[in-house]
Design goal:
single chain; three-stranded antiparallel beta sheet; Neuraminidase; mainly beta
Length: 292
């Protein structure tokens, strides 16, 4: 996710999710990783959606569920302003993931339709979502995705028919999804992922019957490393984004009790201890970088 590289924009945005009800709240993140207080939500309140940066400095939230699966999207300007709903394109679904590819485009993929899906939808550098592309790889939900390298992406982990996975699917710089790569690391779902550095990525946290705080680093060639012992509160249903060009942030989620804690990730992939949360506690939200 980011500006002409696999990393990210200067700032980030957390958005939507579930508090005690469906939410459209957002929280902006500064170029120093400081999370701002709540911004009143715009668009349809929902949870288990996905988000990615696109263009050189913008972002998009898409799909999700508010009692029914949705295919609408909300564009985010380079000032972090969320636009009203855009009528969705492609199959309505939730519990999907999204990431940047090709330096300025994005891809939504997988999710629950209500059966486990591997469908994808490409997003142009103007934020226009394309119709469905037939899925590749194992259909699953509650997975995560991130960019890596300077122009590629990866979907990873998730739940397929009550079978937790650690498999990954690489995305080329033209948005073509590869077949399954045998998984590395602990199987889990409801985790989050982000780019960091200028060309690497990280998967973190999640649940496999127990709450987890472990991470798995991804090299600039898309190779996933074995588990790194986690730092911070073990939780799931959180979100992550790059910020400050080369760093990342994990935030929010639930331990069984919703939280708003965040964990910053250095440009070498080191996760910091908990930062006291800002904004409304929630789970099932999404996050993306934006700005330049």
């Amino acid at each position: 996710m980011g500006v002409a590289r696999g990393g990210g924009g200067q700032r980030a945005i957390f958005g939507y999710g579930e508090t005690t009800s469906y939410s459209a709240l957002t929280n902006l993140v500064s170029s120093a990783g400081v999370v701002a207080s709540d911004t009143t939500g715009v668009g349809t309140a929902r949870r288990v959606l996905a988000a990615s940066s696109y263009g050189t400095d913008k972002a998009i939230f898409g799909y999700g569920n508010n009692g029914t699966s949705l295919s609408l999207t909300n564009l985010v300007s380079n000032a972090g302003v969320v636009a009203s709903d855009t009528t969705g394109v492609g199959t309505a679904r939730s519990a999907l993931a999204a990431c940047r590819y090709g330096t300025d485009k994005a891809i939504f993929g997988y999710g629950d339709v209500p059966n486990y899906s591997s469908l994808t939808n490409l997003v142009s550098n103007a934020g226009v979502v394309a119709t469905d592309t037939a899925g590749v790889g194992t259909g699953r939900e509650y997975l995560a995705a991130t960019s890596y390298g300077t122009d590629k992406g990866v979907f990873g982990y998730g739940n397929a028919f009550a079978d937790l996975s650690s498999k990954t699917n690489l995305v080329s710089n033209t948005g073509v999804v590869a077949s399954d790569t045998t998984g590395v690391g602990t199987i889990r779902q409801q985790l989050a992922a982000s780019a960091y550095g200028t060309d690497k990525a990280i998967f973190g946290y999640g649940n496999n019957g127990s709450n987890l705080s472990l991470t798995n680093l991804v090299s600039n060639t898309g190779v996933v490393a074995s588990d790194t012992t986690g730092v911070g509160t073990a939780r799931y249903a959180l979100a992550a984004s790059s910020y400050g060009t080369d760093k990342a942030i994990f935030g929010y989620g639930t331990t069984g009790t919703r939280v708003s804690v965040t964990n910053l990730v250095s440009n070498t992939g080191v996760v910091s201890a908990d930062t006291t949360g800002v904004g409304t506690i929630r789970r099932g939200l999404a996050a993306s970088s934006y700005g330049s």
